[in-house]
Design goal:
The chain is of the alpha+beta class. It is 14% helix and 35% strand.
């Protein structure tokens, strides 16, 4: 993959049937999901294990993301150290409640045969019913024995922290967070490349064969963070007149920025050290690059490899999209915001609560 033939990479979505899925991926995001099935997830960018995104157009058509990672790694992600493509991007349609669950960190996953990495993630709320909620951690400090007793007596819900949500909000879910997406939420999820889930509680549900889904109570409680936190991330927004550029979240595994075009305009995307992933949330916009141009429509995701350094965006008013990458936190987040005189006390909020905040050691103390 050379600079001369570098272009945006479009992939075929991978649809996942889930017991809690629905039809919003089609009705809201224009996805061509299989009829007659409960589709809960659309994996947009994935390159680990047997779950592979496949290029659907251009000279690399038919190649998997894993093959690109193996054969064209420097042009794809520069020198980012990772055994496979380092992110998984998906849409989730929670027509019903997901299980109450927790994901392990990297150390626990490796020592217990659960893969090469943990699963830290974040959620961008694309759409939500008026009464939609999330479960995020606990209401108060709890003990392992309290959790076990509550599960045994079907009273776990009394310990859990229920959060009302609205479209446009972002939540940070570090590995170890007990959580659940509840019915009525449509979400864009950015995460480490892992599908390891430990279930604490599944609402007494049975699958199509009349069986309860497997629970992992002891593994879950030993992985869980028992301390309550604030998981919502407040945006830091720069107003450029014809468009707004918002920083939405920043941790060692990923950053997410959001662009909103306030009027018909054009802009140049800032370069990143490794790669960029764009996800269109509203409207249509055009990507202009040295060898051509292509449009991105609502519900589509595209990977801009590291070798594709220059990309300009043009679009009509109300177009909105996310820009996602694995970061150099100092170069991609802290330095640009300090140049706009954003106080360190505001920047640090992008990293979440203090115990898991990757920005704090890098920020000037003033």
């Amino acid at each position: 993959m050379s600079f001369l033939d570098a272009e945006p990479l479009f992939f075929t979505s991978v649809y996942k049937e889930r017991i809690w899925g629905g039809s919003a991926l089609a009705s809201v995001l224009n996805k061509n999901i299989p009829s007659g099935k409960l589709i809960g997830e659309s994996w947009e960018i994935c390159g680990f294990g047997s779950e592979q995104s496949i290029v659907k157009q251009g000279p690399l058509t038919g190649k998997t993301l894993g093959e690109l990672f193996r054969d064209h790694r420097p042009g794809l992600i520069n020198n980012y150290p990772s055994p496979s493509f380092p992110l998984l991007i998906k849409f989730l349609d929670a027509a019903d409640n997901l299980s109450v669950q927790v994901h392990p960190d990297g150390e626990y996953a490796r020592t217990h045969g659960m893969g090469d990495c943990g699963k830290t993630e974040c959620w961008y709320i694309l759409d939500a019913a008026e009464d939609a909620q999330l479960i995020l951690g606990f209401k108060r400090e709890v003990t392992l024995d309290e959790i076990r007793y509550a599960i045994k007596n079907d009273s776990l819900h009394h310990l859990l922290n229920y959060v009302n949500v609205r479209p446009g909000e972002v939540y940070y879910i570090p590995a170890g967070t007990v959580h659940a997406i509840l019915g009525g939420n449509l979400i864009c999820e950015i995460q480490q490349p892992s599908d390891t889930t430990l279930r604490l509680y599944d609402w007494g549900r049975i699958d199509g064969n009349g069986n309860c889904r497997e629970l992992h109570i002891e593994q879950s409680v030993h992985t869980a963070d028992l301390t309550p936190h604030n998981y919502r991330i407040e945006p830091v927004t720069l107003n450029h007149g014809t468009y707004q550029h918002s920083y939405r979240i920043a941790c060692r595994y990923f950053t997410m920025e959001e662009y909103f075009l306030a009027s018909t305009t054009s802009l140049r995307l800032p370069p990143k050290e490794y790669f960029r992933i764009l996800t269109a949330l509203e409207g249509t916009f055009t990507m202009h690059y040295p060898s051509g141009n292509q449009q991105l429509h609502k519900g589509q995701t595209v990977l801009l490899p590291s070798v594709l350094e220059r990309v300009d965006i043009s679009g009509d008013a109300s177009a909105r999209f996310l820009c996602i990458t694995v970061p150099d936190l100092q170069k991609d987040v802290i330095s640009p915001l300090l140049r706009y005189d954003i106080p360190p006390s505001v920047i640090k909020g992008l990293g979440g609560f203090e115990e898991r905040n990757d920005l704090l050691p890098l920020l000037p103390h003033r």
